[in-house]
Amino acid sequence: MTTEQTHYLSIGRQLDDAVESQLFGKPCFKINGKAFISFFDNEMVFKLSGETHQEALSLDGSHLFDPSGKNRPMKEWVQVPFHYQENWLKFAKEALKYVSGE
């Protein structure tokens, strides 16, 4: 297991009511059956909206998540490099709030 994956798992496992699952064959965490974070190419992926979405997307190397690799990115999902691991927990909490409707 990579350092990046270990960090992703530690974040997901500390969030209340988050359940480990799969999204497009990739590891993810869900709340109420809906995915809010995932892990792809040793980077963390977050379902975000509003200012937090813009903040995550503005980080150098961050981009919209395109799990198919066919230039069909998912507009709410932002893939953030490990270089910004200090932001991962904050973005995960925001994604959880967004998806759970808080």
Describe the structure.
This protein is an alpha+beta fold. It has a single domain (about 5-100), classed as Aspartate Aminotransferase, domain 1, CATH 3.90.1150. About 35% of the residues lie in helices and about 30% in strands. A hairpin with a 2-residue loop joins strand 2 (about 25-30) and strand 3. Helix 1 (about 5-15) runs parallel beside helix 3 (about 85-100). The protein is globular.
Task: Give the key terms.
six-stranded antiparallel β-sheet, 102 residues, 32% strand
Radius of gyration (Å): 12 Å
Q: Based on the coordinates given, report the CATH architecture.
A: Alpha-Beta Complex
Number of strands: 6
The structural domain count equals: 1
User: Which CATH class is shown?
Assistant: Alpha Beta
Q: Terminal Cα separation, in Å? A: 33 Å
Mean pLDDT: 95
Largest sheet: 6 strands, antiparallel
* Shape, principal axes of CA atoms: globular
**Annotation field: number of helices:** 3
Strand order of the largest sheet: 1-2-3-4-6-5
Order of helices and strands: HEEEEHEEH
The helix content is 25-40%
What structural class do the secondary elements suggest? alpha+beta
Residue stretches low in confidence (pLDDT < 50, at least 5 long) are none
Tell me the strand percentage band.
25-35%
**Remind me, CATH topology?**
Aspartate Aminotransferase, domain 1
